[in-house]
Amino acid sequence: MIVDTAEAQAAFEALPKIRQIPSLSPDYAMVDSIGKSHGTTIHMLSRDASGILIKSVHETPLPVGNGFDWESPYNYGGDCWSGAPNPLRYSIFQRAAEDRGVVAEFRRSHPLGGAAQPTASTSFSSTRRCVVVPLVRRDPAELLTPNARTMIRKARRSGVKTVWRDFNHAEFPSRYTQAME
User: Fold this and answer.
1) Is 92 helix (H, G, I), strand (E, B) or coil?
2) How does pLDDT run along the chain (181 residues), one tens digit per residue?
3) Is the Cβ–Cβ distance between 11 and 4 less than 8 Å?
4) What does pTM read for this prediction?
5) Spatial contact of 162 and 152, defined as CB atoms under 8 Å apart
6) CA distances to 21, 80, 114, 177 from 18, in Å
7) Contact 107/40 with Cβ under 8 angstroms?
């Protein structure tokens, strides 16, 4: 069912602490919506005996015709859940999407927040799990705006150590986890 932010946030706060990832919070979704040109932020909640599933999305009207697209909040938004994985909990989201005329969803999934949660939708398809953009240039600074280059020069002059490194895909998960701790 679609619920207001207060009810969705209360359900989020009732989740086990390990599942209360800040970027999955309904309050975070509302903050993320500030200044965006989309239509509305909606929260959906599915409860059953085995647990809770919460989904917050930004709903944007299609430029032509009737209908919407959904986008999860920026920075590893997505679904959060408790209890045993249960694909039937997703049926409420599928029905809401169909009832509202949703034609597409851009879903970001936090690696710890529910990316492995199964979906009951037969029409769900994951078209892009990750996009890698090769950043091969002689000088990495060429990728930055002039303002960013100036800020780096100022930081170096004030004693900040900077290191340019090639991106090693195999090292990314452990470095990301270390940086987030």
Assistant:
1) helix
2) 899 999 999 999 999 888 888 888 999 999 988 877 768 999 999 888 878 889 899 999 888 778 888 888 887 777 788 887 677 777 778 888 888 888 888 777 766 655 444 444 444 444 444 444 444 555 666 767 788 788 888 888 888 877 766 666 667 667 767 766 6
3) no
4) 0.62
5) yes
6) 7, 11, 12, 15
7) no
Assign 51 to helix, strand or coil.
strand
* Distance of alpha carbon 113 from alpha carbon 8, whole angstroms: 16
113 backbone dihedrals φ, ψ, rounded to 5°: -100, 0
CA 39 to chain centre: 18
Nearest in space to 1 (alpha carbons), one of 116, 89, 121: 89
CA-based nearest residue to 88, from 125, 42, 50: 50
Which amino acid, residue 31?
A: V
Q: How far apart are CA 143 and CA 137, in angstroms?
A: 8
Distance CA 100, CA 102 (A): 6
